[in-house]
Amino acid sequence: MSYDEPLRLPAAAIPDGCRDWTAGPAAAWSASLAPRWTLPAVRRSVAAAATTFALCVGAWAVMLGGLWPLVAAGFAVYTLWVLARPELVWAGAPALLVALAVEAPSLPWAVTFAGALVVVVSWTAVAVRLRARGTQLERALEAAGDGTARVPDEDAPVRRGRFLRPLGLVVLAVSVLTGATAGLWGTAEDRGGSRVVACYLAGLAVTALASAWLGRHRAVALRREPAPVLRVLVRDDARGTTEVYAADDTAAARPLFTVDLTSYDGDTEAADDPGAADGGAGAADTHGDDERDDQRDKERAEFERILDTINDDVPGPVREAVLYGAPFDGAEVVLVSADEDPDQPPLTEWSAGPVCPLSPGAGLRRITRQKAREARDRQLERQARELGAGRPAVPVRRWSAGWLDWLAAALLVQWGGWICGAWFTEWAMSPWELALAAAIGLYGAVRVPLKLAWRITADSSGLWLTGLRAPRHVPWDDIRSVRRESYELKLRWRDDDWAVAAPRWAWFERRRGLTHPYDALAAELTVMRDDPGLRPTGESSGAERGRPLWPLALALAVLWVGLLAVLS
């Protein structure tokens, strides 16, 4: 669907005194963002990789001797805080410096100096980043002026922190268990590594609990008094993340920031609350049940509509919106925006994550990547459509694992062998080492067959996907999207999804003009979903749909357990 202009927000949904956040004030706000060397916008995958690397280096230093496990794990957690949770650095940096001072007599001076230098430099970067937040807040308040309003649904339950808080408690319990059983490992190196993991898990638990508290605290503060309001434009990207634009950027040329949002329906929880109504019987109860059923049907239909929108594999239309709350790096906001369906009321959404500002260059690069991906997908789908139209009708089509999938399986096996070879260097393994080795092997026994022998079979009724127990059937009308996401080929349908992963090197593909097999397959399945005339015409047989993969997984598991029994 194409739109010539932004979808309009009803005038009744715009508070009195609400100003447009136009390109001029928005550019001044963007100019106040923290410089790039402070790492203000690191991807989650990069932060996770950097933290894991720091943990591995710390564990290696502990096992070689001379470094306290708490210091090693502390550096890994501190890396995560610098990249993703800078508010906690004010407590983490002094604690690390004190720990390094205590450990200094037992460490080479170069190690102590390098560690202290890293802490001081990163602490300075975080200070600059947090100071920039204050400037962003001032610029946003200047743009809003005197325009303030109470946020919609201010009496609704605060949902921020509901997931991270129990998660943090569970991780904390696991860390205590890991630390308590550290003495059961066979060697001093393994015991040291176990203590590092225990301290690291404790740090992750603290991170989750602190993030839950910060998110909830900011969400509650947003409801406490009238919030600044600004008129903006918004758009949902292909992955469901909301991009916010200046009010006069109707072409959506440069997003100011991104934020993950969630909607709240007060009627939903009231309908599901058995204590919401406490009277009446007979016909009254029946009438209430009918109303609740109708409400659930409406909610289910709305949920299906939203999923269809998200899984269109293209960004949504540009919509007018009112932004409640002054945006800055890490802020909580509320957005009231025009719904994509003109018959629906405005959509009220609360931030489910912090505001992530985009510098002008980063915003332009984001849009350029989106347009390039859209153009590539359109070209692949056009080629698949032309190829399908020129191909004679066939009863059944099949696709199966190729050499990239075999390479992925080989890399998985190599990774498992490296882990086991690095940890279990002695013939006599303790029960804990044996259990861990068995778990790693059983995981590989399940994953390797899926990588080596996956198959997709298309017939007139839909798709058949291989699985451990039996092939799964997905009707054509239930398919929401088929696309390549990072390293995965992901197929989504109404109730579930299915994915396989293989290596990918985007730079090499662009340089050589190559197309990843997953991209070609996703385009072909997409045109079949959209055009019934290009689908196969027959019904597939049991042999064509593929066999269950559990016999191969069972054989690999038995082989691994037998090998462990011989080695132990």
Describe the overall structure.
By secondary structure, this protein is α+β, with helices and mostly antiparallel strands. 54% of the residues lie in helices and 13% in strands. The protein has 16 helices and 17 strands. It has helices spanning 23-31, 44-64, 69-84, 89-103, 109-144, 164-180, 188-224, 266-272, 283-310, 360-390, 403-423, 431-453, 506-512, 517-530, 542-545, 550-567, and strands at residues 19-20, 148-149, 227-236, 242-245, 257-259, 261-263, 319-324, 334-337, 347-351, 356-357, 397-400, 455-459, 462-465, 472-475, 479-485, 488-493, 497-501. The strands form three sheets. Strands 1, 2, 3, 4, 5, 6, 7, 8, 9 and 10 form a ten-stranded mixed β-sheet that branches. A four-stranded antiparallel β-sheet has the order 11-12-13-14, with no helix packed on it. Strands 15-16-17 form a three-stranded antiparallel β-sheet, covered by helices on one side. Strand 16 (488-493) and strand 17 (497-501) form a beta hairpin. Helix 1 (23-31) packs antiparallel against helix 5 (109-144), helix 10 packs across helix 14 and helix 12 (431-453) packs antiparallel against helix 16 (550-567). The longest helix is centred in the middle third of the chain and has 37 residues, at 188-224. The termini are far apart.
